């Protein structure tokens, strides 16, 4: 039966043996968006002495937006496509030497917006704006045409030929006007005298009276 000290020594030895058989973790070198919903991640290759095993495999696991996918490659280069737009994904890369796998290297990557949808929306907006502008210009043209027709109708109300149909009045001479004015003054004078004529009675002797008219 082993003592407590012997068990501790055994655990230490096993830990050292495990460390000697676990490959090193990788360092991410670059991340590039190949499309708005796709990217490629590249890490530095491990030196042969750091594998500590016969196999030399790189593994990458991507998670996010309900996706969980793993890729395995002999080179540390992974491409993920057909992802969701504007989504944060987590990529974990680790090495495997046939016996053990290394500690994972984690990287968070965010995809871009859907440029095709944005371009389509802008094209639709431009088309709708152009149609609205054409409609406004058409309305302005119709209004100007109606206004022009109204002006033409008003001009046609008086034509040069209509002036000939107007009543011709001969001029009156000044002598005729003067005679008419004199007759009018004389008539007004007679009417004035007739309206204000006064009969005066003067008493005479013997009960007679005489009437004087003024």
UniProtKB/TrEMBL annotation:
Originating species: Hucho hucho
TM region positions: 117-138
Keywords per UniProt: Membrane, Transmembrane, Transmembrane helix
UniProt protein name: Fibronectin type-III domain-containing protein
């Amino acid at each position: 039966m082993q003592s407590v000290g012997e068990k501790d020594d055994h655990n230490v030895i096993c830990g050292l043996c495990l460390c000697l058989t676990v490959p090193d973790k990788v360092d991410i070198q670059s991340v590039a968006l190949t499309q708005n919903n796709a990217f490629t991640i590249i890490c530095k290759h491990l030196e042969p002495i750091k594998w500590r095993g016969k196999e030399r495999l790189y593994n990458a696991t991507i998670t996010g937006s309900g996706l969980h996918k793993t890729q395995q490659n002999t080179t540390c280069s992974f491409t993920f496509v057909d992802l969701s737009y504007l989504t944060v994904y987590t990529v974990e890369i680790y090495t495997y030497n046939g016996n053990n796998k290394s500690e994972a290297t984690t990287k968070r990557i965010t995809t871009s917006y859907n440029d095709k949808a944005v371009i389509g929306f802008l094209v639709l907006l431009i088309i709708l704006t152009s149609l609205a502008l054409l409609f406004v210009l058409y309305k302005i043209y119709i209004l100007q045409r109606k206004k022009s027709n109204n002006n033409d109708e008003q001009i046609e109300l008086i034509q040069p030929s209509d002036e000939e149909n107007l009543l011709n009045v001969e001029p009156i001479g000044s002598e005729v006007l003067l005679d008419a004015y004199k007759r009018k003054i004389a008539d007004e004078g007679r009417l004035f005298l007739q309206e204000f004529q006064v009969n005066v009675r003067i008493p005479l002797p013997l009960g007679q009276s005489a009437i004087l008219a003024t």
